[in-house]
Amino acid sequence: VLLESMASEDLYARLESVTARLERVAAKMGGGTGDSEEAVPLYVQEFESLLANEVKGATKACNDVGATGITPILEQGFTNIVNLIKACASCKKPSSVDLMTFLKPGADAINQAEKLKVKRSKKFENHYKAAYECVLGISWVTMAPPMGTTSGHCDGQLQATDFHLNRILKSCKDASDKEIHRAFVKAFKDLNKKQLELVKQNFKTGLIWNPKGTELKSFTGAPTSVSEDEKKEPKAEPEPESKPKPKTKPKKATDNGGMSAVFGQLSKGLTVTSDLKRVTANMKTKNRKDRSGKVTDVPKKKKVTKRVVKSVIREPSTKVVGGRVIAEFYSEGMQEITQATIKNNVFITRCENCSFSVKGKVKAIQIDSCNKVQVQVEDVVSSVELVNCKSVTIYCMGVIPAICVDKSESPRIVLMRPAFNAYPDIVTSNVTAMNVEIPGKTDEDDFVEFAVPEQFMNKIDPKTGKMTTEKIVHA
Length: 475
Description:
7-stranded mixed beta sheet; alpha/beta
């Protein structure tokens, strides 16, 4: 009997533990625990707490330092993001147009922060730059794999903000008001760390929408203010402009005769002009030797017309030529290449600010002379080549035997789990600022980023006459 009672107590304890865990998960996802019909999700409460504590602390630090221009930008940007997170619990996934319309206040805040950053201010130059990087971090709401991870973006902006915050600490080391600057640095560090923590905990793969919810257009959630009892200071009324006094003409000095003197002068008749000087013949311009009335023509300089070469804007196109699928001259949007098969090569050239998705298994892919282009590749028989490109990202979704990068600047190779398990060969030549990202040990872990070496040290052994090459690692 004693054993049965102990077993039943152990069973009850385990059931209570499982029930508590399920209730916490339900509260986090907005399901509620049965006490209320419309419970607020836990992640909404956490982001509202971020707005009320960390954001408020950062704005207070800005006002204490004197950089008051940052305060409304922070409030506007983070308030818009919190409103969007509140909408996620009750709205289904919107279209990109509706989402960008909803995020217009946040985009305006980023633009205002950028204008503030380029503003010349010796005292607050680093403060404005740090605030811009911090506000730019709210754009994580538009991120989702494979085009980028939310936590990776937040972590990158945290590091960018810390760069300028460290410069603030260095510049105010011997200043009399260094304590308020240190408080400014601490407030922004706490804000970035808290945002990164909440994003990792709740939105690791992007925003989570309610599939049974309403349209984002119809969301009527009231925007959360930073402080309920905080009142806006009334603007100082402009002082009334003083009316300009009418200008008074200076009085001419007159003789002591008054009007009687004037009438006396008029009574003289023509003799009143007897005191004036007469113009003689030698005073006239036509008779003066020092001045000539002849007008001579000055030879005009010939205008040199420069030949202006007009740039020809060509129309973007995707065509099949001799077994090759060629995509060229694209400058915007997302393009899907579906014409290629296992017997075709795909050639992407002279494109910028756009994305490509190569569907199916193809023979090979060449990317040439592209700028700020993202290419998503599934399966390739031979290799993917990247030549003469700048800021191009390749997302490898399937099996790719080899990746070759030559004469490129800031290339980025992202290997998904299937591509990483195939152990592709990555060959580089004459590249700068290249990074390779691989998945973590599990699907829940963040991607691991590796920098490709750019500098090498060559040593020749005088005994053997052989040369060895080693990469240079900077501490």
